[in-house]
Amino acid sequence: MLTNKITFARLMALLRSIDPSVPLPDELEPYLWKHMFDHGLCKKAKRLEEWGETPKNSYYVVTGIVIVFCFDKIGDRHTFRIYGANSIVAMECFMKHEKSEFMIWQCRGSVVLSISYGHMQEIYKMMDGMDRMGKQSDLQIINGNIDQDFA
């Protein structure tokens, strides 16, 4: 459950910007407020999701940086993408519930919120249009079309 209403308002504004022509369901906001998890201030960089595993959560970067790494054929790690404040980190493998080719790290000094795959599935089942919006946001994130303010 969340406690910071200002941070939550920023997340909701970002979600509304994904497809402004489609209003968010009234029940989405209280559902997210209840089921999202605040990871708090990261004092030491930590791995949020592991390469080769099915991601358990998608993330909203409140402050700081989250880095997504990939690996080449010989196993060397490379930076795939850097997400700054007011960004959604939801890899396609999360949306499809498949094993990931990426590793996600939360950097020191950052704050992230998360929601589980199970809760996202409940949203898609319970709320009209949210499945379509989830796919739309996934495409926008992949294509870099959602505005992101880097810290």
Please explain how this structure is put together.
The protein has helices spanning 5-18, 28-35, 92-96, 117-126, 130-143; strands at 37-41, 46-49, 57-63, 66-71, 77-83, 87-89, 102-106, 111-116. By secondary structure, it is α+β, with helices and mostly antiparallel strands. It has one domain (5-143): Jelly Rolls (Sandwich). The strands form 2 sheets. The protein has a 4-stranded antiparallel beta sheet. A 4-stranded antiparallel beta sheet has the order 2-7-4-5, with no helix packed on it. Residues 146-151 have low confidence and may be disordered.
Q: Which CATH top level class fits? A: Mainly Beta
Question: What is the number of independent domains?
Answer: 1
Topology-level CATH name: Jelly Rolls
Tally the beta strands: 8
Poorly predicted segments: 146-151
Short structural summary:
The chain is of the alpha+beta class. The protein has helices spanning 5-18, 28-35, 92-96, 117-126, 130-143, and strands at residues 37-41, 46-49, 57-63, 66-71, 77-83, 87-89, 102-106, 111-116.
Summarize the topology:
Layout: H1 5-18, H2 28-35, E1 37-41, E2 46-49, E3 57-63, E4 66-71, E5 77-83, E6 87-89, H3 92-96, E7 102-106, E8 111-116, H4 117-126, H5 130-143
Antiparallel strand pairs: 1-8, 2-7, 3-6, 3-8, 4-5, 4-7
Features:
151 residues; alpha+beta; Jelly Rolls; 4-stranded antiparallel β-sheet; disordered C terminus
